[in-house]
Amino acid sequence: MGYSSTAIFGNDLASDVRATYRELLEDGVSAEEALLKVEKEFSYASNDPDNRAAFWTALAATQMQLGRLDDRVRDQTIAVIDSGGDLHMWESTDAARRKAVFAKLRSQLLGPQKRPIPIRPPKRELSPVQAGETFVLGLQDGREARFRTLAVHSYRVGEVPIVEMVDERGRPYRDGVRALVAVKQDVPIRVIGRFRAPSKVAMPDVSCTWRALQLHAAKLLSDPEAKPKRGLFH
Fold it and tell me: What is the pLDDT of residues 90-147, one digit of tens each?
């Protein structure tokens, strides 16, 4: 586990616990079920001498911030703090800072708690192109590049289209496949046709934004070695 500071969320484990718990609530899971899922996922840490303080304090602090502090989590966290937490892992100066962080959290856990705050699901960014669509992308110099959408991968907060640059006969350019990690369309595109998309497409190693795709397409159009070779059909 990596530490960046003595703060409650100053380590990788604590950040992961916070993100996992909040994402479950955002996805409509009840607080009770979210707690059980987090405990199961991080079971390796909850009783480990080196990790349990990071786990329980992160979970309690996250619940407290969201107005969902569970009594059992509160009591377990206080017990871990009172037993010394992870102070054995810190040198004297940092141990004193960490101890102060624990003391502040302990006081907050025993104090008045806020009401549950509304948790809304994340806004999903949908792909402007769909699998099987051929489209042209307007470039900054006025030229146009032709692409086909091989697949659209769906994930928690949006969609990632996987596109391939082709010529007018559908032949692929060298190094022309990209995954568009920022699907917000901030460049001109125009769907011009359809094709039979492959049934399975792996996520490519290279991803980019739409504007980066513009620059890459201009580079490929200007590179004779990148153009499709005669006789290569895809």
Answer: 998 999 999 999 999 999 999 999 999 999 988 888 899 999 999 999 999 999 999 9
**Domain map of the chain by residue range?**
12-110, 133-226
Nearest to 163 by CA among 141, 132, 185: 132
Closest by alpha carbon to 108, among 58, 83, 74?
Answer: 74
Q: Is the dihedral of CA 180, 186, 187, 193 positive or negative?
A: positive
Q: With CA atoms as reference, report the closest residue to 110 among 150, 161, 146, 75.
A: 75
- Asked if 149 contacts 166 with a C-beta cutoff of 8 angstroms, the reply is no
Beta bridge partners of 135: 147, 191
Beta-carbon contacts of 121 under 8 Å, excluding residues fewer than 6 positions away, are: 26, 27, 28
Tell me the β-bridge partners of 11: 3
CA 65/CA 127 separation, integer angstroms:
33
Of residues 146, 150, 149, the one with CA closest to residue 166: 146
Q: In what order do the strands lie in the sheet with 172-182?
A: 189-194, 133-138, 144-155, 158-166, 172-182, 207-209
- Please state, in angstroms and rounded to a whole number, the distance separating the CA atoms of residues 12 and 21: 14
Per-residue pLDDT reduced to its tens digit, 54-101: 999 999 999 999 999 999 999 999 999 999 999 999 998 999 999 999
What does the block give as tokens for 69?
Answer: 């502090």
- Report residue 74 as tokens: 């509160």
What number of other Cβ atoms are within 10 A of residue 89's Cβ?
16
